[in-house]
Amino acid sequence: MKPHYPLPENIVDILESRRRKTNDSFTDLIRGGGYVPPNMDLLVDAISALSMGKNVLLKGPTGAGKTKFAESLSQLFNQPMFSVNCSVDLDAESLLGFKTLTYEGEKQVIEFIPGPVINSMKHGNFLYIDEVNMAKPETLPLINGVLDYRRTITNPFTNEIVTAEDGFNVIAAINEGYVGTVPLNEALKNRFVVIEVPYIEGDQLRNLIRSNTNLTDDSMIDLFVTLSSDLIHAVSQGKLSEDAASIRALLDACDLSALIPAKRAIQRSIADKLDEAREREFVQNLTETLF
Q: Which residues neighbour 271 within 8 Å (Cβ) at sequence distance 6 or greater?
């Protein structure tokens, strides 16, 4: 059985109090990480899973705030977080560490420099694996023992058996359907509790824009919230790719619009990132209608 990691002091009382009241922004609760959850259940479920020592897989569209969510969870647990950014080039050294030559006085010696997996295990910290389905299928099985009840790995570079200290846990994030991604194999997927991270909308998006951008004009903020809603709707209908509805890109547009015209800000931050001319034209037409 996996160990139980106690929640930070008073967090249970705070969460239960919030649950009994209303789904507000929770900004004061997670101010360190900067993620504003769309609903309370998302936050409660993630915290509950991590407090029981379970790995969490954040699944959702690009720009929905998965990395910010992971940072906020790290902040709530008062745990530093080591990160792995997956790609086709990810290998054992990127995960576990590497050997290098160094000197002890006059003597040249081989030293092992630990990577994010070994570091997070030995320090009892969080490990964040971003875009986990970008890694080659043969790479991540290296850490299967880290992700299950054993919480152990034999370091192939040193032959040391490393067992995770209390507090260690894993959060991963996945974007499905993108070029270069591969489906997670069942052995890997079964080692995670999956939490869907949707786009944030409405009042919570409005609060996020106010707290995370330089845009202060309420009427302009309302227009950007409407724009986001229309973009998300277009994505759901297959008219646009998910990149168009990225909350990260929307916040960039809000920031720029504090200094340059909103239409140009949207073009630079959202429309020009899209590959297809018809999608760029769709966003520009929508912008003309609103702004």
A: 280, 283, 284, 287
